[in-house]
Design a protein that fits this description.
homodimer; mainly alpha; 11 helices; 78% helix; elongated; DNA-binding
Chain lengths: 181, 181
DNA sequence: GTCTATAGCATGATAGAC
DNA sequence: GTCTATCATGCTATAGAC
């Protein structure tokens, strides 16, 4: 499953065969089908793992000083893997994008990681006392995902770094203008 | 080729077969190979058409009052097709994302539409007298692409509409704080 | 130039020995 | 549970009649 997650990120879901995954994981192809009845089942498992990973990441920010620091820590997570993002895109964003164009169950569940991030970020903005916290969360995650897309398109990790700095100062100014709660 | 462009947008490049495209265009499969020697050639033709489409779009903004109006007209183009974007994502962004993960010639050319938009937008910000016009162009297109991605992920056209309004006011305030040229 | 038929191959999935 | 062999299908690409 870890191999699947890595290859789905690097090659995309429909461009990655189960033979690729089995070889990368150094297991026979038949074994994959013992644990995952179909390819979609395996993709779904990756999606669930991503959702849990996102939840764990946000839990890790709980100890930070305040909502603004937590939001900035969130953004910095993409900066920390900027080389990977500039090469293959955001692992959540690219998988979500690909699954989205289908019209089965997987397409419906594909947005789970994004939804988790949006809900959490909206909570932070709400704690700051900002108006329209849901829209601010969307603006923040849009900035992250758009920057990741462009950094990958241009193959430029520094682009991501610059946009992360921009988002940090945007968070600060948004927090500064919010009414005290 | 128009059928190819439509299906690549709706289903993605690797999920769309040449048989799909031929059927949609109501031509026999063999004919596709008469005009495009390989599937990659056809994908490349779609990419070139997108690049020309983007260039024509920006040319169409030349008659508008000023740079800020032109930039807002650019953003509004995504709002005008918000239902399509919310269903299948941005046609440029999703194709760029998919082709990006390969390492052949197509991957290198995939960013052409994005580059064209970035260069044009940077020119508008420069005309406004803004500092760091290249970074501002990236921030603007990041906002567009990120919003398109999230609108598609959540299947919510209104999300795109709200972010477009946000970007419009961001353009206005950025223009207002720029030194006169 | 248009169209049919099919070669050649990769893939998702399964059967069944161990 | 593990692994090999293989089926069935769909795909890219080509051959060749018209």
């Amino acid at each position: 499953m870890a191999s699947a997650a890595e290859l789905l990120h690097q090659q995309g879901a429909s461009a990655t065969s189960l033979a690729d995954i089995a070889q990368h994981a150094d297991v026979p192809l038949g074994n994959v089908y013992y644990y995952y009845r179909t390819k979609d089942d395996l993709v779904r498992a990756v999606l669930v793992a991503q959702t849990e990973q996102v939840a764990a990441m946000m839990d890790g920010f709980a100890g930070l000083g305040g909502p603004a620091e937590r939001l900035k820590a969130l953004v910095s997570r993409w900066d920390a893997m900027r080389d990977l993002v500039a090469r293959y895109g955001c692992p959540f964003g690219s998988l979500t994008t690909e699954l989205n164009r289908r019209d089965d169950d997987l397409a419906r569940d594909a947005a789970a990681p994004m939804r988790a991030i949006l809900d959490w970020a909206a909570g932070q903005f709400r704690e700051l006392g900002c108006a329209e916290p849901d829209d601010l969360a969307v603006t923040l995650l849009s900035g992250i995902q758009g920057s990741a897309l462009l950094a990958a398109a241009l193959g430029d990790p520094d682009l991501l770094a610059r946009q992360v700095r921009h988002l940090h100062s945007w968070i600060d100014s948004t927090a500064a203008t919010a009414p005290k709660r």
